[in-house]
Amino acid sequence: MTTAAPVGRLKRRPEFLRVAERGLRAATPGLVLQALPRPEGADGGGIRLGLTASRKVGGAVERNRARRRLRALAQEVLPRMGAPGHDYVIVARRETVKREWLRLKEDLESALRRVARDDAPRPRRGGAR
Hints:
This protein is 42% helix and 19% strand.
């Protein structure tokens, strides 16, 4: 395993909304990945991560468990597969809590490959709510 810079965090709502509105999106059974490259020189060249779980995932216990699983998964996968200078938001789904760990890992890896293939971000239909 290579040593990579730690993954930073997205903390404020406008950061999440910017990724949701302008970024690429890849949905898998276990999660939804949103990715957006940052402008050159903005906040360095590291990777930043945001996690979200709505009430659709379940009660507070299930949402917290989903976020913990996604955080551990991102710490394992993003340093080796994430693109430097990008912001990523991982959205939990109902399946996140009960999905087998290896399947969840495959979901994230697959989603990262898909957003990496799409060079230019396309606007999403609708918009963030």
